[in-house]
Model the fold of this input.
Amino acid sequence: MTSTLNGNITKSDQILSPELPEITNEDWSEIKLLCL
Done:
């Protein structure tokens, strides 16, 4: 479940933020906290 969700989020982020081609799970945890 986790790996699948991370994959979907990564694809969506690449489309929204082309300037950040690679984002780690740690970065995403911080982004989720900021968004929520």
Residues 2-35 form one domain.
